[in-house]
Design brief:
The protein is of the alpha/beta class. The protein has one domain: Aldolase class I (TIM Barrel, Alpha-Beta Barrel), CATH 3.20.20. Helices cover about 40% and strands about 15% of the residues. It is built from nine helices and eleven strands. The strands form two sheets. Strands 3-4-5-6-7-8-9-10 form an eight-stranded parallel beta barrel, surrounded by seven helices. A three-stranded mixed beta sheet has the order 2-1-11. Strand 9, helix 8 and strand 10 (about 215-220) form a beta-alpha-beta unit. The relative contact order is 0.15.
């Protein structure tokens, strides 16, 4: 499959996915099986709830696969200091192994127009994450925001120094595809887009559309089936579009 000049094969498809398993009822055995599948598909990252951070990092030892650090998930409604403590504890567990921080923005501050609180929290999280050498992704919850709120959130998050803006936790309304264009228009070139939380229907097609629209990473708990379907049914697909390009 070739999209906008980049070839995606069975061998490299895994690297566009953060493979998620975030249900609260998951057991240790289920998490371990999920990590094994993640290694098999050679994904970009494994994203599970914080109590599994140590297990995941140990199982991924020797790979380049990131352990996802997800403070105050899925609502982001903890205080900044609480988020910082969670992130710091998980970063220390990592001992320098590959990881990335996905944090939910302060949605209440954004919607209330308290942009200073919004930006200061993002700055503190970015500063801590970068001090450990880890990229930081800000989860916007596009489906819960107006287009104007999304644009403001992306601008302030980018000013705070985030490396990625991300569409959704998967616990809020699914993001509209067209919001990717809003995100791209309100972040600088070096900030990338993670398309996530896009439901459980037509996921392979939505992933392909997301790639065409400029997303570079995808968060889903269906990574395995998407890779298998692309390899089976879309291997010869070629898409070229400049509509959403930087």
């Amino acid at each position: 499959m070739i999209i906008n000049g980049k070839e995606y094969t069975r061998e490299n498809l895994g690297k566009i996915f953060d493979y998620a398993l975030l249900e609260a009822h998951c057991t240790e055995a289920q998490i371990a099986e999920h990590v094994k599948k993640s290694i098999y598909y050679n994904v970009n990252g494994v994203h599970c709830n914080p109590c599994w951070t140590s297990l995941i990092a140990d199982m991924l030892e020797g790979t380049d696969i990131e352990t996802g650090i997800v403070p105050a998930f899925p609502f982001g409604a903890a205080t900044t200091s609480m988020k910082i403590k969670e992130i710091d504890e998980m970063c220390k567990i990592m001992h320098g192994r590959p990881a990335a921080i996905d944090f939910v923005i302060n949605i209440g501050a954004l919607k209330g127009g308290d942009y200073e609180t919004f930006r200061k929290e993002a700055e503190e999280i970015v500063s801590l994450g970068h001090s450990y050498g880890y990229p930081v992704k800000a989860i916007m919850e596009n489906g819960s925001l107006t287009d104007q709120e999304l644009a403001m959130a992306c601008r302030y998050a980018a000013e705070a120094g985030v490396d990625w803006v991300k569409c959704s936790t998967g616990y809020a309304p699914s993001p509209r595809m067209e919001t990717l264009k809003i995100m791209r228009a309100n972040i600088p070139e070096q900030v990338k887009i993670k398309f996530s939380g896009y439901g459980h229907y037509c996921l392979t097609q939505l992933t392909i559309m997301g790639l065409a629209a400029g997303a570079e990473l995808f968060g889903t708990d269906c990574t395995d089936s998407i890779i298998e379907e692309i390899d089976r049914d879309y291997r010869d697909l070629v898409i070229t579009t400049g509509a959403f390009q930087r």
